Amino acid sequence: MKFTNSLTAALSATCLLIAPALHAQMPTYPKQPITLVVPFTAGGPTDAMARALALKLADRLGQPVLIDNRGGAGGGIAAEMVAKAPADGYTLFFGTTGTMAINPSLYSKLRYDPVKDFSPISLMATTANVLVVSPQIPAKNLAELVTLAKAKPGELNYGSAGNGSSNHLSGELFRSTAGIQINHIPYKGSAPAMIDLLGGRLSMMFDTIAQQTQNIAAGKVRALAVTGPTRSPLLPNVPTAQEAGLKGFDVTIWYGVLAPKGTPAPVVERLQSEMVAVMGTDEMKKRMEAAGAEARSNTPTEFAALIKSDTLKWMPVVKNSGATID
Q1: What is the pLDDT of residue 27?
Q2: What is the end-to-end Cα distance of the chain in Å, rounded?
Q3: Phi/psi of residue 266, nearest 5 degrees
């Protein structure tokens, strides 16, 4: 009995000595503010999503989550910055389909590797584009538009925010999937393209759903299809491109958070679990729905697989479009 008591006391004393050492090796995270780097300027839809997430993450983590807008090079400036940041969980990247899956094919000299330089944490939201046509185009649905384009090869055109933008590549995927000839006209942003669409100088355009709901409701443009796999709550009467007969057509734009490669697994796990909790709230679901998006979350492994699959998906589309940026 005395031996047992002595052994118990010795083990307890040893545990008391080990515990502080283990605590020193695994400090509580986070202990300071976190910076979430956004690859576009303030005020846009990507920035708005990032700020909504940062506010709620800060509440759960007990530390401020500060937004750092670093626009330029299609998000490449921000991505490179985070790729070279310390892998300690205090500098995170708000990645998009463009920065992580399209840029590798679009930029001839990309200064970061979306796979080798980052540790995916979780998706935050997904959204889609909507195909809108000028009222001067007689097509009332997607099938009629395809028939019209085939009857008048090279006569219809579509606008975009610029080479390599999601609305450009949506148009390229539409052209190749439908087997039609339509001309791409790049603009310096979506706004000037919309002016020409409303003026009848453009035949069609793929644009974000949230930016087109008012134009559609006012009859300024006609919505023929959304590009995602499911209908949008903002446009419940508009079919998906697949429902409208364009089999296999899917343009889903996603947003998510990543950390520099080598970030400790416990830090990634903490951030992922908190993102799951945040994006699962009714408040965030409603905020994303109002923005034409769907609140999402997934595991780091699932997010990494999505990045790889979308990179392979967009590679031939970018190549066939001829778009390249040095």
Answers
A1: 58
A2: 79
A3: -60, -35
pLDDT digit string (tens) for 12-30?
444 444 444 433 444 599 9
Amino acid at 21: A
At a CB cut-off of 8 Å and minimum separation 6, what does 282 contact? Answer: none
Range of lowest pLDDT (14-23, 73-82, 173-182): 14-23
Say if CB 47 and CB 69 are below 8 A apart. Answer: yes
pLDDT of residue 14: 45
Q: How far apart are CA 94 and CA 48, in angstroms?
A: 11
Which residue carries 């070279």 as its tokens? 84
Over residues 72-101, the mean pLDDT reads 96
Nearest in space to 224 (alpha carbons), one of 132, 124, 298, 144: 132
- Position 273: which residue type? S
Identify any residues that bridge with 122 across adjacent strands, giving them in sequence order.
Answer: 257
| H or E segment and range at residue 314 | helix 300-321
- What gap in Å lies between CA 268 and CA 275, rounded to an integer? 11
Question: How many angstroms separate the CA atoms of 216 and 234, rounded?
Answer: 11
* Helical packing angle, 300-321 and 166-178, nearest 10°: 70
Find, among 324, 207, 258, the residue nearest to 81 by Cα: 258
Give 200-217 as a DSSP string: TS-SEEEEEHHHHHHHHH
Alpha-carbon span 262 to 239, nearest angstrom: 43
Residue 166's closest CA among 297, 46, 10, 36?
A: 46
Cα 39 from Cα 78, distance rounded (Å)? 5
What is the amino acid identity at position 166?
A: S
pLDDT in tens, 27-59: 599 999 999 999 999 988 899 999 999 999 999
CA–CA separation, 97 and 118 (whole Å): 14
Instruction: Determine the Cα–Cα distance for residues 226 and 170; give it in Å rounded to an integer.
Output: 11
